[in-house]
């Protein structure tokens, strides 16, 4: 998707932001416990959770209970030998992560699996209670994740020529040809996740790039106009302002009912699908949507 709109949120891929492998949360450098920041959040939480569950403990160095929670979980993670990983987040140094998870008190413990927040831990730092919760988590995801990653090969993966054709069309601004190319891949492989994600991006871009420059002002002037709100949300997303786009439509969910509310919710979920479901901006928006609906 080179040249397309960047919908990456916390995915800071620039080499300057890359850090060496994080030291373990228990100070040992263990592979079962890592210190997580905004810079390595994608690798250590989102990507890792596709292989094994990641238990994120969001705490503060000034909180004794946070330290106890992290220490107990680090011990359990080490004892379980890599079947899950502890991610220790200092919320004071990583406010965007804390905001994305909706942290209201420390410590907050959230399990992430398959790139999605799965469950909150409601209890205290007691080992027995944490052990029971972790065991339930492992049972819930049994057989559903890829498992610990094998050693990676140094040889680069061969490019799929079908994707090359689609990406060339996209780089040329030919959205119709790009969509047709991705559709051809999906016709042969309906479960191809890369093609599914790409075709959603292309359809969004082909629509959003036609939106009028004054779409936001038009929607603000006529708050009850659904089509104007949809166009404004597209424009905001295209301008790298996903929070504004989502907040606009969530506010509209609150203000509508019946078929109109269904229409707004459908468009909002469609926009969510342009992102990795575990992106903090999506986690936060889904929580806001749930509050608006119920």
Give the mean pLDDT.
85
Task: Calculate the terminal CA-CA distance, rounded to whole Å.
Answer: 36 Å
Uncertain segments are 1-30, 150-154
Provide the CATH architecture of the largest domain.
Answer: 3-Layer(aba) Sandwich
- The CATH class of the largest domain is Alpha Beta
Q: What fold name stands as the CATH topology of the largest domain?
A: Glutaredoxin
Q: Report the major sheet.
A: 5 strands, mixed
Give the full name of the CATH homologous superfamily of the largest domain: Glutaredoxin
Helix content: 40-55%
The largest beta-sheet arranges its strands as: 1-3-2-4-5
Provide the number of structural domains.
3
Structural class based on helices, strands and sheet pairing = alpha/beta
Please provide a written account of the structure:
This protein has helices at residues 41-47, 64-79, 95-100, 127-141, 161-171, 175-188, 193-208, 215-221, 226-238, 242-255, 258-272, 280-293; strands spanning 33-36, 54-59, 85-90, 108-113, 116-121. 50% of the residues lie in helices and 10% in strands. It is built from 12 helices and 5 strands. Helix 8 runs antiparallel to helix 9 and helix 10 (242-255) packs parallel to helix 12. The protein is α/β, with parallel strands linked by helices and 294 residues long. The longest helix has 16 residues, at 64-79. The protein folds into 3 domains: 15-141, Glutaredoxin (3-Layer(aba) Sandwich); 161-208, no CATH class; 215-293. It has a 5-stranded mixed sheet with strand order 1-3-2-4-5, sandwiched between helices.
């Amino acid at each position: 998707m080179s040249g397309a709109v960047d919908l990456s949120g916390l995915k800071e891929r620039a080499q300057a932001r890359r850090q060496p492998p994080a030291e373990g949360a228990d100070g040992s450098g263990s592979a079962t416990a890592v210190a997580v920041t905004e810079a390595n959040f994608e690798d250590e939480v989102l990507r890792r959770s596709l292989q094994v569950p990641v238990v994120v403990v969001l705490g503060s160095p000034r909180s004794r209970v946070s330290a106890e929670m992290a220490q107990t979980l680090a011990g359990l993670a080490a004892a379980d030998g890599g079947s899950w990983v502890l991610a220790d987040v200092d919320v004071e140094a990583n406010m965007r992560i804390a905001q994305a998870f909706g942290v209201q008190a420390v410590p907050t413990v959230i399990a992430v699996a398959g790139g999605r927040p799965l469950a909150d831990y409601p209890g205290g730092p007691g080992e027995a209670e944490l052990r029971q919760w972790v065991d339930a988590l492992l049972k819930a995801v049994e057989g559903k994740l890829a498992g610990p990653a094998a050693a990676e090969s140094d040889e680069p993966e061969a490019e799929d020529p079908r994707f090359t054709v689609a990406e060339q069309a996209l780089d040329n601004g030919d959205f119709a040809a790009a969509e047709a190319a991705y559709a051809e891949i999906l016709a042969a492989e309906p479960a191809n996740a890369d093609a599914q994600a790409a075709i959603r991006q292309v359809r969004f871009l082909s629509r959003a790039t036609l939106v009028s420059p004054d779409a936001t002002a038009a929607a603000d002037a006529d708050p009850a106009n659904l089509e104007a709100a949809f166009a404004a949300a597209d424009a905001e997303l295209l301008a790298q302002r996903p929070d504004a786009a989502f907040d606009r439509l969530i506010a509209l969910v609150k203000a509508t009912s019946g078929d109109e509310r269904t229409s707004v919710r459908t468009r909002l979920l469609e926009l969510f699908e342009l992102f990795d479901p575990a992106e903090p901006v999506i986690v936060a928006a889904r929580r806001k949507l749930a509050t608006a609906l119920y």
